[in-house]
Design goal:
The chain is α/β, with parallel strands linked by helices. The chain has helices spanning about 5-15, 15-25, 45-60, 60-70, 105-115, 140-150, 165-175, 210-215, 230-235, and strands at about 75-80, 90-95, 120-125, 155-160, 175-180, 180-190, 190-195, 220-225, 240-245, 255, 260, 275-280, 280-285, 305-310. It is built from nine helices and 14 strands. The protein has a six-stranded mixed sheet. About 45% of the residues are buried. The model has no long low-confidence stretch (mean pLDDT about 90).
Amino acid sequence: MNSALLEQLEKRLGTVHARLRLGIEEESSPQVFGQGINFFHPENWYSSHSLLRHLLKLSGFYWRGRRNTLHFKIIENILELPHLPSAFDGFKLLHLSDLHTDMPTPATEALIEVVSTMSYDAVVLTGDYRAWTFGDIEASMAGMRMLCTELKEPVYAVLGNHDTIRMVPELEEMGIRMLLNESVVLQRDGQEIHLAGIDDAHYYRVDNIEKAAQRIPREAVSILLSHTPEIYLQAAHAGFDLFFCGHTHGGQICLPGGFPLTLDARCPRRLGSGAWRHGEMQGYTSAGAGTSIVEVRINCPPEITLHTLRVAKVEN
C-alpha cells in the first residue's frame, strides 16, 4: 500500500474508516460465498462469466442483448414532499448507477451522448464504477473522466461493492464529491435540503447511517444515497425522506415483461427496480446504466433517471 495514498485516505475519511475498508479489501481475494449481506456473490465467480457469455451466444441472445446496452431509457420520477422548501420545487437530480465504465462495450460513449443534452440541477451517482471487483482501476477511472467532462456540477456519489476506496482521490479530483458516511447541505435561494451518502453496505459492510445523518436536523428534508437497497429499513427508521440506490441492474437479464431472474440483493423484489415506498420514505432503485458479468441486457434496458422534487399539494 502506497504510504502517501494511505495518508491521503486517512486524512479524507478518518483513520478507522480508511484502515477498515482497506483491510477488508486486502484481507483476501473476492469471495463467491459468504461476506456481505447476502451469501452468494456471482460477480466474484469469474469462471462463470465466460460460460454465461458462451451460453448466450449459443442461444442467439448475445448480440441482441449487447445492442440493447446502447439504448437508454430515460425515466422521469416525480417525488412530492409536503415539507419541501419552496425554493426546491422543481429541483432536478440526474441519477446514474452501476456505470461499470471499463466493460468492453461502447455504452459509456452512448451514455455521454445522451446526458450531455439533458437539463438538471445536480447529479447523484450510486456506485459501481468498475466492472471487476479487484485489480487495476485505470480503465474505470478513464471512463469516469470521459463522463465527467459532460456532467454539470455539482456531482455527488457513493461507492459500490465493485469499487475500491483507492478510487476516492481520483474521483474527487474529477469534481465528484464523494459521500462516505457523510452529508452535505444543498442550498437554493436561502433555503436548504440535506444529502447524505453511505459507503458500501452490500459486500464491505462499512456503511454507517448514524454517522451520515448526524448533522441533519430532524425536521429537514433529507435524501440518502446508497449503492444497494438492502438497508432500506435502516434508512426509513433513521427518518430519511428519500432513498436513491442501484446495485440490482433491475436483473439485467430478465424474462419477458421484465421479470428478473436474480437481483443479487437480499431485499423484497418490489425494491428491485423503479419507485417504491416504505413507511414515510420514498425510494427509487435504478436499473443501472451499465452491465455486469456479461455485456448484455435482455428485457431490461439501461436506465438514466431524472428525479424532480415537488412540493406536495395539501388537500383541504
